[in-house]
Amino acid sequence: MSSLFGLGRPQPSSAEKISAIEAEMKMMTEMHARLAKICKAKCVPTDYREAELNKGESVCLDRCAAKFFSVHMSVSEQMQKEGAARGGSMF
User: Fold this and answer.
1) 60, burial (CB in 10 Å: exposed 0-12, middle 13-18, buried 19+)
2) What is stated as this protein's family in its record (predicted)?
3) For residue 62, what are the CA distances in angstroms to 18, 35, 50, 84?
C-alpha cells in the first residue's frame, strides 16, 4: 500500500519541484509563442484594415489553435509510448 503513495521511493526536494515547475512553465510559454506566431502568420494579414479581427480571421485563428493543440497532443502521446517501450517514461 505504501508504494501507491510514493512512500517506497525518495521524494523530490523543494528545489527539484521548483525546477520542474519552472521547466514546465518555460515549455508552455514557448509553445504559446509558437502557436501565436504560426497562427498569426497564417490567419491575420499584415496590412491591418480594422482594429478588430473580422469573422474569417477569428474562425481561422480558432481552427489553427485547435489543430496546433491536436498535433501537440498526438506528438506527446507518441513520445510517451516510445518512452514506455524503451523501459521508462519520458514524462
Assistant:
1) middle
2) Belongs to the small Tim family.
3) 33, 11, 19, 33
Query: Cell numbers 501537440 correspond to what residue?
Result: 72
pLDDT tens, residue by residue, 30-88: 999 999 999 999 999 988 888 899 999 999 999 999 999 999 999 989 999 988 888 76
CATH number of the domain bearing residue 59: 1.10.287.810
**Based on C-alpha coordinates, what's the Rg of the chain?**
20
* Structural domain that includes position 64: 13-45+55-85
Burial of 38 (0-12, 13-18, 19+ CB in 10 A): middle
